[in-house]
Amino acid sequence: MSDRGPRPPDRQRLRKLAQAAMNADMTVEQIQNILVDMGEVMGGMDSTITNLDTSLADFGNSLTRLSTTMDRVDGMAERIDTMLAQMESIVARAEKLVALAEVALSPIGMIESAGQAIAARFAR
Asked: Domain of life, per the record (predicted)?
């Protein structure tokens, strides 16, 4: 037999092996606790992701409604533009009628003014 140096007593060796086994048990228990905690976190993340998916679907629906509304506003803008053009045409015609009426009534205004001047002279 070769001499490898002093060999620790069997008792000391058993104590080290027992300590190593206890350390391994503690490590396994710690890993199990970590895995349990990770399971809870993963469950919470699953719930959060489900809620996020629902929110994104609702957001997509809202964007679709917004797009539809914007299309309607665009269509209304075109109709309003057409209506404004018609109103401008009506206003232009009314302005022409007013100008014609002013021209037609100007002789009456002159006669009225002359009548007032004559009445004022006789009233003195």
From this structure: Bacteria
d(CA 18, CA 119): 138
Q: For the full predicted model, state whether its pTM sits above 0.85.
A: no
Question: Pseudo-torsion of CA 109, 111, 114, 116, nearest 10°?
Answer: -70
Report which residue type is found at 66.
L
Long-range contacts of residues 4-13, Cβ cutoff 8 Å, at least 24 apart: none
Each residue's pLDDT tens digit, 8-57: 678 888 889 889 888 888 999 999 999 999 989 999 999 999 999 999 99
Burial group, residue 28, by CB count within 10 angstroms (0-12, 13-18, 19+)? exposed
- Pure H helices in the chain: 10-122
Residue 34: which residues within 8 A CB-CB, separation 6 or more? none
